[in-house]
Amino acid sequence: MSNYKRIYLENHSYYLTVVTQNRNPILIDNIELLRDSFRRSKKRYDYVINAIVILPDHMHMIVTPQNPKDYSKIIALIKRSFTYGLDVRIKEESKFNLTASSYRRTLSGVWQKRFYEHTIRDEQDYEKIVNYIYTNPIKHGLVDNIEDWKYSSFG
């Protein structure tokens, strides 16, 4: 995995999935902090969020960055802003006995180190992923109807 190279292509959108460490369900409980983290990233980087859903322990989104090399930086800033804004107690509960260096590498044990990324190839790929994003709360048993999940850009 250390040889993994991300793809950065001009004029493309990217499907991204970001997950909390050990799937800790802290995102919805701290939704205002997460929204603020996105606002901070939007001030620094020029990108569009085409679709997004936030679940308790992970989030899926499609972003279209003005500069393709920015999507990794966008995720890093969101994760960092969210982590630094979290209550100290939550961060302490999330550490799970990490060493000092791994503690820093995993952003205080709040996030998984890496995130999933997929370059969207065409309109069919885009539609398939948008459908997956919006139906994800149903898949996880959080709601019965897409319209009922308020932590999404659906509608």
Structure description:
This protein has 155 residues and is α+β, with helices and mostly antiparallel strands. Helices cover 39% and strands 17% of the residues. It has a four-stranded antiparallel sheet with strand order 2-3-1-4. Helix 1 (31-44) runs antiparallel to helix 2. The longest helix is centred in the last third of the chain and has 17 residues, at 123-139. The protein is globular and about 40 Å long.
Question: What keywords describe this structure?
Answer:
4-stranded antiparallel β-sheet, alpha+beta, Alpha-Beta Plaits, 155 residues, globular, sequence-specific DNA binding, Transposase_17, Transposase IS200-like domain-containing protein
Quick rundown:
Pfam families: Y1_Tnp. The chain is an alpha+beta fold and 155 residues long.
